[in-house]
Amino acid sequence: MRTVDLTAIERHPPIVESTSSWAVWATEDDTQAFAQTLAASPALGNAFIELHGDLGAGKTTLVRHLLRALGVQGRIKSPTYAVVEPHETLHFPVWHFDFYRFNDPREWEDAGFRDLFAAPGLKLAEWSEKAGGLLPVADLVLRIEARADETRRVGLQARTRSGRELLEALDSRLRGNDWDGRGSDGA
Fold first, then answer.
1. Are strands 122-126 and 48-52 parallel, antiparallel or unpaired?
2. Is residue 75 part of a domain?
3. Which of 96, 103, 143, 174 is deepest in the core (most CB within 10 A)?
4. Does residue 2 register a pLDDT over 70?
5. End-to-end CA distance of the chain, in Å?
6. 3-state DSSP of 69-89
7. Distance (Å, rounded) from C-alpha 178 to C-alpha 68?
8. CB-count exposure of residue 15 (10 Å: 0-12, 13-18, 19+)
9. Nearest-angstrom CA–CA distance, 46 and 38
């Protein structure tokens, strides 16, 4: 009888046909509501989410609201200088990565990031392109674009089955909100 290493499957989730959606956040309250909706998804506990956007687009703000929605108390620091900040929720660990200052992909092994990404829990990564292709396939990719009218346009792309579950949960909960991407914002 052949045995299958399930941990390898979890670390390298199968890529599915990409599924996309988008949202518009007019205020920080919209960002908070989006984070609360994301936090309610059962598929979040072992997901890897990439966050893209220019400096000041709102990536870290979204993470702070998400961590609060997951029950994290106390100060939530940006990992810009530390590269990673760990957090504990009642149900799973969370690692918030910021690779903005990541200069040498060899730092990946030295810092033990391979082990962190292989472990169960939620991984949130800003500036993932700076990791030199060392990251696994993200389940969900968020692209946050700050617009001239101070709103945020957020593109969401599922790249795995888990990502599709997250996106479907978001889509079903976001319908009917002014910030669900179906408004008359001209996008």
1. parallel
2. yes
3. 96
4. no
5. 55
6. HCCCCCCCCCCCCCCEEEEEC
7. 23
8. exposed
9. 13
Q: Which two tokens stand for residue 130?
A: 């700076």
The pLDDT assigned to 58 comes to: 92
Please tell me the total count of domains within the chain: 1
Within a domain: 180: no
Contact 30, 58 (CB under 8 A): no
Separation between Cα atoms, residue 14 and residue 137, nearest integer Å: 9
Domain annotation covers residue 82: yes
User: Model confidence at 175, in pLDDT bands (50, 70, 90)?
Assistant: low
The per-residue pLDDT for 130 is 85
Domain of 149, CATH number, reads 3.40.50.300
Range of the domain at 165: 15-174
Question: CA nearest 111: which of 97, 123, 125?
Answer: 97
- Both tokens of 101, joined, read 């200052």
pLDDT tens digit sequence for 108-151:
777 888 889 999 999 999 999 888 778 899 999 999 999 999 99
